[in-house]
Design brief:
It is a single chain. The chain is an alpha+beta fold. The protein contains four helices and 22 strands. It has a six-stranded antiparallel barrel with strand order 3-13-16-15-14-17. Strands 8-7-5-11 form a four-stranded antiparallel sheet. A three-stranded antiparallel sheet has the order 4-12-10, with no helix packed on it. Strand 20 and strand 21 form a beta hairpin. Helix 2 packs antiparallel against helix 3. The two termini are about 65 Å apart. The relative contact order is 0.17.
Length: about 575
C-alpha cells in the first residue's frame, strides 16, 4: 500500500507540474511572425456603372381592347447623340389603326342617335307650345261659341213659349203645341248647361292632363338626349384616345443626350427585354435612357453577411475592368434597408442594393461598365495583427499557439476587428512573436486550460466581427439589416450571449445563417490546416540538442492588408 501511494503521489505531482506548461515544437509546423502595421477593412463588391440622373424614355402607348403590347418597328442605334424632339422609336400601330376605323363607325352611330334624340325633344317641346297656345285656345273658343248659340236658342225658345202661352190662353194654340214649345225651352237650357260644363272640364281637367302628358314626353326626350350626348362623348373620347395612342407609337427624345438601350436581363421567373426591332413593349416600360455623364454612380449588391458593416457616407475606391490603371474615388450615398427579390430557383442568398457616388467622374466612363468597389469600412494604424487562422476559440476566450524558443505554449489573446484575413490583437501578443498557422494541429500535444462548466463558448471569427468584452473595435453596425456586428446572434453580443443595450435580438433565420457561416468557417480553417499538415502521422519532436531554424510563412502579404471579398 505504501508503494502504491508513492506511485500515485508521483503521478499526481507530474500531472500538476506539466499542466499549462509549454511543449516542444513540431518539426513540420509553420509559423507567422507577428508584425505591427496598418489594418484596413474593406467590403469589396462588383457592380455596374450607371448615371445618377437618367432621362428615361418610356412607352406611353396604353393597352386597348385588342392588344396590350406593341412591337418595335424601328429603333435608333445605340450610342448616337440626339437632340430634343428627334425620333427614337417607332412602334407598330396597325392594330390601333384598325380599331380607330371601327371606332369611327361607332361614333357615327352615336351621332345619329344624338340627332334623333334632339329631334324628339324638339317635337315634344313644340307639342307643348302647340297645345297651350293653339289647340287649347281653339277648343275653348269652340265651346264658348256653343255656349253663345245655346243661349240664343234658349232665349228664342223662351220667347216663343211665352207667345204660345198667350195664344193658348185665347184658344188659338192647342195644349199639345204649348207642350212642344215648353220642351224646346228645356232642351235649349240643357244644351247651354252642357256647353258650360264642357268648358269648365276643359279648363280645369283636360288642360292639366294634356300638359302633364306633354311634360312627360319632354322629360323622356331630354333623358334620351342626355344619354345620347354621354354616349357620343364617350365614343368621341375613345376615338381621340386611340388617335393619341397612334401618335404615341412614334417616340421622340424628351431631352438631348446619348442613346443607351434599357435592356433587362431576366431569370427563370422574369423574361428578359432586349431593345431591337420585333421586341414587345408593354405600357410604361423603359426603352431608352439618356444619361447625364456629369453625375455617375455604381449600383452594387452587398451580401447580407456584410451589409451591416456598410453605412451611408463611407468612402470607397472604384476600379473599372475596362481601364486597368484608372482608380476613382467614391462615397456610399444609399444602402437599402430591405433585400432585393430573389428567385426561388436560384441561390437563396439575400443581397442589399447600395449606391456609390463617383466623385469627379471622367468623361471616359459610360453606363454599363463593370466596376469593382472597395468600401472602406475601418482603418487602424500601427496595430498588432495576425492571420485569422492563427486565432483559435477555446471556451469563452481566444488563444494562439506561440513559439517560445523551441517550445510551444497556448497564450490567451484579446482580439479586435478582422477583415476575414487578418485580425487585430489588442493584448496577448507583441511584435516579432511567432504564432502557429494551424493551431488546431497542436491540440493533442499542448495542454489547454480546462473549460469551466456552464461557460459560454465563443465562436470562430467572421468577417467584421467585434469580439465581446472591452477592446472590441468592430465596424459600425446598421439597424434594420442582419449580419455583422450591428446585429448578432446568441453566440455574441453582451454578457451571457444576450444582445447588448440598443441591439435587437436575432431571429431564428439569422441564427441559422450565423450557424451556417460558423460551420463554413470551421471547414475552411480545417482545410487550411490540412493543407499545412503534410504528413501529420509522422510527427516528431525537436530535441534540445537538435538545431533547426524556425519555419516562418513567407507567402503572407505585407501590411497594410485589406479587401474582404
Amino acid at each position: 500500500m505504501a508503494v502504491v501511494g508513492l506511485a500515485l503521489a508521483g503521478a499526481a505531482s507530474y500531472f500538476f507540474m506539466s499542466t499549462g506548461k509549454p511543449t516542444v515544437v513540431i518539426d513540420d509546423e509553420m509559423f507567422h511572425q507577428v508584425e505591427v502595421g496598418d489594418f484596413i477593412h474593406d467590403v469589396v463588391e462588383q457592380g455596374e456603372v450607371e448615371s445618377a440622373r437618367n432621362v428615361d424614355v418610356i412607352s406611353q402607348v396604353r393597352g386597348t381592347r385588342e392588344s396590350n403590347s406593341f412591337e418595335i418597328l424601328w429603333v435608333i442605334e445605340e450610342g448616337k447623340v440626339v437632340q430634343e424632339g428627334d425620333v427614337l422609336v417607332r412602334l407598330d400601330s396597325s392594330g390601333l389603326d384598325e380599331e380607330a376605323k371601327l371606332q369611327e363607325l361607332d361614333l357615327s352611330g352615336s351621332q345619329a342617335g344624338l340627332a334623333k334624340a334632339q329631334n324628339t325633344l324638339d317635337a315634344a317641346q313644340i307639342a307643348m307650345t302647340e297645345y297651350v297656345d293653339g289647340l287649347f285656345v281653339q277648343e275653348v273658343r269652340e265651346i264658348e261659341a256653343e255656349i253663345t248659340f245655346a243661349k240664343e236658342t234658349l232665349k228664342r225658345a223662351q220667347e216663343y213659349f211665352h207667345y204660345s202661352s198667350r195664344l193658348a190662353a185665347k184658344g188659338y194654340v192647342t195644349s199639345l203645341q204649348l207642350e212642344g214649345d215648353e220642351f224646346a225651352v228645356e232642351k235649349a237650357s240643357t244644351e247651354l248647361a252642357n256647353a258650360e260644363h264642357k268648358l269648365k272640364v276643359l279648363r280645369e281637367n283636360t288642360k292639366l292632363k294634356k300638359i302633364k302628358e306633354l311634360q312627360s314626353s319632354i322629360g323622356v326626350a331630354q333623358a334620351d338626349l342626355r344619354s345620347a350626348e354621354e354616349r357620343n362623348g364617350i365614343e368621341q373620347k375613345r376615338l381621340d384616345f386611340i388617335r393619341e395612342q397612334i401618335e404615341n407609337c412614334t417616340i421622340r427624345a424628351p431631352a438631348s443626350g446619348q442613346v443607351v438601350y434599357a435592356n433587362e436581363r431576366g431569370n427563370r421567373e422574369a423574361s428578359e427585354f432586349i431593345v431591337e426591332p420585333g421586341a414587345t413593349v408593354r405600357e410604361r416600360q423603359s426603352i431608352i435612357r439618356l444619361p447625364d455623364y456629369s453625375a455617375m454612380q455604381v449600383h452594387v449588391l452587398i451580401n447580407e453577411s456584410r451589409v451591416s458593416l456598410v453605412d451611408a457616407g463611407m468612402p470607397a475606391t472604384i476600379t473599372l475592368d475596362a481601364f486597368d490603371k484608372m482608380t476613382l474615388r467614391g462615397k456610399v450615398i444609399k444602402v437599402n434597408e430591405y433585400p432585393e427579390p430573389i428567385s426561388r430557383f436560384g441561390p437563396q442568398v439575400k443581397r442589399y442594393a447600395a449606391v456609390i457616388e463617383i466623385e469627379e467622374p471622367p468623361k471616359l466612363i459610360k453606363p454599363g461598365l463593370t466596376a469593382n468597389v472597395a468600401i472602406h469600412v475601418e482603418s487602424l494604424q500601427s496595430v498588432v495583427q495576425v492571420p485569422v487562422q492563427c486565432v483559435m476559440p477555446h471556451g469563452d476566450h481566444y488563444y494562439c499557439m506561440v513559439r517560445n524558443g523551441e517550445e510551444i505554449e497556448p497564450r490567451q489573446v484579446e482580439v479586435g476587428s478582422n477583415n476575414s484575413r487578418f485580425v487585430v490583437i489588442n493584448s496577448g501578443l507583441k511584435a516579432n512573436d511567432l504564432v502557429s498557422l494551424s493551431p488546431r494541429r497542436l491540440l493533442d500535444v499542448v495542454t489547454m486550460p480546462e473549460v469551466t462548466p456552464g461557460e459560454k463558448p465563443v465562436r470562430n471569427l467572421q468577417d467584421g466581427d467585434s469580439p465581446k468584452g472591452p477592446g472590441g473595435s468592430g465596424g459600425p453596425g446598421r439597424e434594420g439589416r442582419p449580419g455583422g456586428p450591428g446585429r448578432r446572434g446568441p453566440d455574441s453580443g453582451g454578457p451571457g450571449g444576450r444582445p447588448s443595450p440598443g441591439e435587437r435580438p436575432t431571429s431564428p433565420g439569422e441564427q441559422d445563417t450565423a450557424t451556417g457561416e460558423t460551420q463554413l468557417a470551421d471547414r475552411v480553417s480545417k482545410q487550411a490546416e490540412a493543407e499545412n499538415d503534410g504528413s501529420a502521422n509522422q510527427r516528431s519532436r525537436f530535441t534540445n540538442g537538435r538545431d533547426d531554424s524556425v519555419r516562418v510563412a513567407e507567402d503572407q502579404p505585407t501590411q497594410p492588408v485589406g479587401g474582404a471579398q
